[in-house]
Amino acid sequence: MAPARAADEHDDFEPGDVRPSWISLRDRPAELVTLKERDGWLTLRARGGSLDEPDVILLGRRQQHLAFRARTLVAPAEGRGGLAVFLDERHHYSVEAGPEGRIQVITRIGSLRSVAAELTLPVAPLVLTVRTGPAPEPQDSRSGPDSLVFGVETADGTETELASLDGRYLSTEVAGGFTGRVIGLYTAAGTVHFDWFEYTPVSGEAAR
After folding, report:
1. 19-42 burial, b if ≥16 CB within 10 A, otherwise e?
2. Average pLDDT of 33-45?
């Protein structure tokens, strides 16, 4: 018998309270994280200036499967934010959209922060994506456990892969800690709205 699908794999952010499956860093101020401002949308208001900051506003869910795909529809016209795979403030990857139409894939590994890819698109709601892929070659004792592939989908259905990043740097074996990865929605400047979030487990060859 096929396993039951988790009830929280797709969240349309209907009015009410944020689902219990979502977690936050340290606190969750109601004025900065709300479902009440825009009907059917999650609204996040910035506090920290990036995922490097301990007070960044991030709403996440734990990675519960070895392979997954996550997507979210974001409206960044009033701010800057996006979709992240987060271990801690010193170990995270993200795909970030801004009001000027600039999409960036940002990496933070220890003390190093860099932009891995950049693309400019017309300012409009768009879908940000991340999925797991195979570990980078060569695969040996220093490899793995996977890669993290970030991309963007536009309203016409066009999907663009922006960057494939080594997942080892977001593993507890390399970075330490005990909480594991969190797939998160965040804002680094202004106000960002999210229409929905989807997290889908992937099995077998589909993960590639």
Report:
1. eeebebbeeeeeebbbbeebeebb
2. 96
CB atoms within 10 A of CB 134: 17
Q: What is the pLDDT of residues 136-154, one digit of tens each?
A: 776 665 666 899 999 999 8
Cα separation, 61 vs 44, in Å, equals 16
Out of 132-136, 161-165, 204-208, which region has the weakest mean confidence (pLDDT)? 204-208
Torsion over CA: 63, 203, 150, 35 (sign): negative
**Tens digit of each residue's pLDDT (9 = 90 or more) over 84-94:** 999 999 999 99
Q: Would the pLDDT of 159 be above 50?
A: yes
Question: What is the DSSP code string of 119-188?
Answer: EE--SS-EEEEEEEEPPPSS-STT--S-EEEEEEE-TTS-EEEEEEEEGGGGSHHHH--SS--EEEEEEE
Buried b / exposed e over 59-75, threshold 16 CB at 10 Å, is: bbbebeeebbbbbbbbb
Using alpha carbons, list the distances in angstroms from residue 20 to 8, 36, 60, 160, 184. 9, 17, 11, 32, 14
The mean pLDDT value for 104-111 works out to 96
Residue 93 DSSP symbol? E
Question: What is the Cα–Cα distance from 26 to 33, expressed in whole angstroms?
Answer: 13
| CA atoms of 63 and 176, how far apart (whole Å) | 16
Cα separation, 208 vs 161, in Å, equals 14
